[in-house]
Amino acid sequence: MRPELKALFPDTVIIIMILEKYTIGVGDRFAHQAEAQLEACVKLAERGIDVIPIWNKSNREHSFIGSHPQSVFDAAQVAVEAVGWQLGWHVDADHINMDTVDKYLSCSDFFTIDVADFIGQEPLDDAVATFMQKHPELIGSVSIEGIDLPFDISREYVIEVAGKYLAAVAEAGTIYRYIESKKDDFIAEVSMDETDTPQTPPELLIILAALADEGVRIQTIAPKFTGRFNKGVDYVGDLEQFEKEFNDDLAVIAHAISAYGLPDNLKLSVHSGSDKFSIYPIIGNAIRRTGSGVHVKTAGTTWLEELIGLAEAGGEGLQLAKDIYAKALENVDAMCEPYASVIDIDSAKLPTANEVSGWSGDQYANALRHVQEHPEFNQHFRQLLHIAFKIAAKEGTRYTDLLKAHADIVGKNVTENLYDRHFKRIFIA
Ligand SMILES: [Zn+2]
After folding, report:
1. Which terminal residue of the chain has fewer beta carbons within 10 Å of its beta carbon, N or C?
2. How far is residue 104's CA from residue 93's CA, in Å, rounded to a whole number?
3. Residue 22 burial (CB < 10 Å; 0-12/13-18/19+)?
């Protein structure tokens, strides 16, 4: 609560804004597809499944594109009105920290508090000792409903995990309280996904206990899961292991809600969630079996649907799609370097610019569209274009005017991608 309100109503307990059970992170780099994305939610709602859109765009993306946070809210609001969407919607200040949060305060009601950089930093003097004193229940054999074998946790292990994460938790508290001092109501997510090592379920339990101590009323948490969540392509990893970890995480969250009084709608958030087709049925089965909610962040690949639509439109649209590929290929090494840990491109499998220049719109669309079983699909081509959005941004109005001119065919691809390839696999049994 803002300090001036707190002074007037010192005893008031604010009921926090409640995040809906099933939510989907949507958005697009150029802020043209909000309505097409919302149409996918409408189609699912017509089948009786409510999935609430949360438009997100990270600070990083805004700086690449040169856009401002308010534009995300504005585009979402226009879409909500145009479609007549009656359910909830939110705007996510995605991956913010103390340096970047301010410009999101007026236009976001969902804050992804990113503390990954603080993992492994030294906590304050007696933070670990205080935590150990407060949490004897974390040591020994810890039984959690829904997990077959109890966790066998040693004192040394809790000290190690607390030492690794308490600085990050403290930072989450600092940012959370800062937002709280500026806004009457908001939804908080804590993200720890942009780091090298995944958090195991016992680690998640310790982190949740610490976040509860810190007073952070999180409604979603984004751990780093096992396996690779590469940009724009399917999950790479051991599906059985992912399934066990995801189910154990759900059980840990349910346990932490009752043990530590965290918000009872607390749920998992899956980042880099677009196109992770092989884990969608696992996620879907787990949430239907347990009654848990989930938040899945997609968004990044929406721009590829724009390229597919422009290619299908032919003419200048197809030409621009080809030009963007040619420019991306020219600078392939420099383009890939910042994304090394989240892409896997085999340059030998990339078509030459000359080959692509001879393609029809359908050939271009088939190579790019994420239909893995299609004989013309090329995941190397797809990944390179995924990170090539800055080239489109440089094209300026040449790009955005074509998006406007071909809004129908582009929008159709955006809606289909979200509904057929994402929603059906996650939310429909
Ligand atoms: Zn993320």
Report:
1. C
2. 6
3. buried
Beta bridge pairs of residue 22: 294
CA of 191 to the centre of ligand 1 (A): 7
Residue 194 Cα to ligand 1 midpoint, Å, equals 7
Cα(95) to centroid of ligand 1, in Å?
Answer: 7
Ligand 1 centre and the CA of 5: distance in Å?
A: 33
Average of pLDDT values for 111-119?
96
pLDDT, average across residues 123-134: 96
Rounded CA-CA distance 39/53 in Å is 10
**Cα-flanking dihedrals φ and ψ of residue 242, to 5°?**
-60, -45
Average pLDDT value for residue range 243-257: 98
C-beta neighbour count of 179 within 10 angstroms: 19
Shortest CA distance to 101 belongs to which of 194, 183, 29, 211?
183
Q: Which amino acid is at 41?
A: C
The answer to whether the beta carbons of residues 94 and 112 sit under 8 Å apart is yes
Burial class from Cβ neighbours inside 10 Å (0-12, 13-18, 19+) for residue 408 reads exposed
**Token pair of 399, please?**
């790009």
Residue 198 backbone phi and psi in degrees, to 5 = -65, 155
Calculate helix-pair angle for 34-46, 69-83, nearest 10 degrees.
40
8 close to 17: Cβ distance less than 8 angstroms: no
Tokens of 149: 């074998």
DSSP 80-102: HHHHT--S--EEEEEEE-TTTGG
> Please, which residues have CB within 8 angstroms of residue 163's CB and are 6 or more apart in sequence?
122, 123, 128
Q: Which residue type does 300 have?
A: G
Query: What is the Å distance from ligand 1's center to 271 Cα?
Result: 5
Least confident segment among 9-23, 44-58, 109-123: 9-23
Let me know: does 232 contact 384? Beta carbons within 8 Å. no
Q: What is the pLDDT of residue 15?
A: 57
For residue 419, what is the DSSP state? I
Contact assessment for residue 168 and residue 119, using Cβ atoms and an 8 Å cutoff? yes
SS3 377: coil
Residue 53: Cβ-neighbour burial (10 angstroms; 0-12, 13-18, 19+): buried
* Predicted TM-score of the model (pTM): 0.94
Contact 401, 323 (CB under 8 A): no
Contact 220, 268 (CB under 8 A): yes
